[in-house]
Amino acid sequence: MLEVAFAVPGDIESPTGGYAYARKLLELLPDQGVTPRLTELPGSFPHPTAADLDCTARTLLALPPGTVLLADGLAYGALPRDLVAMVQNPVVALVHHPLGLESGIGARRKAELLASEAAALDLARRVIATSGATARCLAAEFGVRPETIAVAEPGVEPVVRARGTGNPVQLLAIGAVSPRKAYDVLVKALSGLAPLDWRLTIAGSLERDLEAARSLERLVASEGLGDRISLAGAVGDGALDALYDRADILVSASLFEGYGMVLAEAMARGVALVASTGGAA
């Protein structure tokens, strides 16, 4: 069987779409004649410290000969070209969305990430994109040859149709609190609908970007919506299923999505969508 070292930064059990995708790959690859081995990288990516880059270099340079390196884009796009060039193993990059297109980063860091990701992708033998939109973006804006790109969309498992609530209307937004998710835009929009009877639950980590989380908490309070909007933080699968089941509408103001897994999950459950159209959404 083909041996693959799947390099993933941080805690693969984290409740995000990207990590769920990684877990599913580890589960399903053996059925395709591939033996995957999780290779853990520091959790500071995509903004690694010098010490974490040294640690990553030692990890990647120690891979057994003949093993394919499947590198999650959350780390791969932030690796210096010189580090990637030292890796002797064949490299396959998994890209959910380009790191430099993330919102809320400064202009200098944005430019650094765009440059490092383009350089790293140039050294990859193959690239896996999680949507056709991301594949087209990589070809058009990062110079990746289309014939080297494969698209592997996440898909969804069969699920029971959500029952909803109806009164008050239950709105649900899912995703770690970060500038890209544009929860501030959502809250400001909903403040104009205060005369209507609705409740919003935002389910997603409050620890990914502490500044964005605190800013969102202040905004909810200043708009007088503390009794209407609940910040649930990261939730497990069971709690998320319960939130979906009582949801009437899934709302997403995200500025960019590489695929938009929560949108597909909501559709699978028959939950109505109100969403922006950033990226692949």
From TrEMBL:
<dbReference type="Pfam" id="PF00534">
    <property type="entry name" value="Glycos_transf_1"/>
</dbReference>
<keyword id="KW-0808">Transferase</keyword>
<dbReference type="Pfam" id="PF13439">
    <property type="entry name" value="Glyco_transf_4"/>
</dbReference>
<dbReference type="GO" id="GO:0009103">
    <property type="term" value="P:lipopolysaccharide biosynthetic process"/>
</dbReference>
<dbReference type="GO" id="GO:0016757">
    <property type="term" value="F:glycosyltransferase activity"/>
</dbReference>
<dbReference type="InterPro" id="IPR001296">
    <property type="entry name" value="Glyco_trans_1"/>
</dbReference>
<feature type="domain" description="Glycosyltransferase subfamily 4-like N-terminal">
    <location>
        <begin position="88"/>
        <end position="157"/>
    </location>
</feature>
<feature type="domain" description="Glycosyl transferase family 1">
    <location>
        <begin position="167"/>
        <end position="278"/>
    </location>
</feature>
<dbReference type="InterPro" id="IPR028098">
    <property type="entry name" value="Glyco_trans_4-like_N"/>
</dbReference>
<protein>
    <submittedName>
        <fullName>Glycosyl transferase, group 1</fullName>
    </submittedName>
</protein>
